[in-house]
Design goal:
The chain has helices at residues 14-17, 27-41, 59-63, 69-93, 115-123, 141-151, 185-191, 198-206, 221-226; strands at 7-12, 46-51, 98-102, 111-112, 127-131, 156-161, 182-183, 211-215, 233-235. The chain has 236 residues and is α/β, with parallel strands linked by helices. The protein has a 9-stranded mixed β-sheet with strand order 4-3-5-2-1-6-8-9-7, with helices on both faces. The longest helix is centred in the middle third of the chain and has 25 residues, at 69-93. It starts with 6 loop residues before the first strand and ends with a strand.
Length: 236
């Protein structure tokens, strides 16, 4: 099967990077991610990546511990930078060029993000890892990845999670939950499904960016999704 996507935005969860650990970055999971990403880069697909920071710090849960919301979100943004540096290092080690962009100026840690610089990197065959969320508090990394996906003119946003798609209920809690092959943005909203926050979903809907939610923790799935195999759930 030919790949129907020329350019993608891959959203990875920080939590998934923990692998078997309670905190931080699991080296094995990081290596698995890098080899899967390199595999699709070799198919000629241009790749932008946004990673969450929940394995290091979650802004929202910090507020419950008395941390100011804005400072908490800034700590979360920095956590995404740490994860992005780790992934870029792992990709380079595997022989795949990658470049880290930061939403706020953090020279020399990463290059200050702009749409054109990210696209230029991707066109040169480098993977653009875009960190720091949107650079603003009160926005999740889901919203950050929706925004970047739209900006870099990606054909699709791939949301890699622990679950193999979107279900009628949480499959980890409800064994009778049924998986959707595809679902509209509006239905996610009316059913109250916790797929991504509303800000992110609205951005994708208004700008016609389809999303595929799939299980990234099963090695080989990323390539399967991009080869057109029906795994995961398409949100349209």
């Amino acid at each position: 099967m030919g790949n129907q996507y020329k350019r993608i935005l891959l959203k990875l969860s920080g939590e998934s990077l923990m692998g078997e650990k309670q905190y931080g970055i699991d080296e094995r999971r990081l290596a698995e991610y890098a080899s899967q990403i390199k595999e699709i880069a070799e198919m000629g697909i241009e790749i932008g990546i946004v990673i969450g920071g929940g394995n290091i710090f979650r802004g929202l849960s910090g507020t419950s511990k008395g941390i100011d919301r804005v400072k908490g979100d800034q700590m979360g943004m920095l956590a995404t930078v740490i994860n992005s540096l780790a992934l870029s290092s792992e990709l380079e080690k595997a022989g795949q060029k990658a470049k880290v962009f930061t939403a706020i100026n953090m020279f020399p840690i990463g290059e200050h993000y702009s749409k054109w610089k990210a696209i230029e990197a991707m066109q040169k065959g480098e993977i653009a890892i875009i960190s720091g969320g949107t650079g603003n508090p009160f926005f999740t990394t889901d919203t950050g990845s929706a925004l970047r996906g739209i900006e870099i003119e990606a054909d699709v946003m791939l949301k890699g999670t622990r679950v193999d798609g979107i279900y009628t209920a949480d499959p980890e809690k409800d064994p009778s939950a049924v998986k959707f092959d595809k679902i509209s943005y509006d239905e996610i909203y009316t059913r109250g499904l916790k797929v991504m926050d509303l800000t992110a979903a609205t951005l994708c809907k208004e700008n016609h960016l389809p999303i595929i939610v799939f299980d990234m923790d099963t090695v080989g799935n990323l390539k399967k999704v991009l080869s057109g195999e029906n795994i995961g759930t398409l949100v349209y």
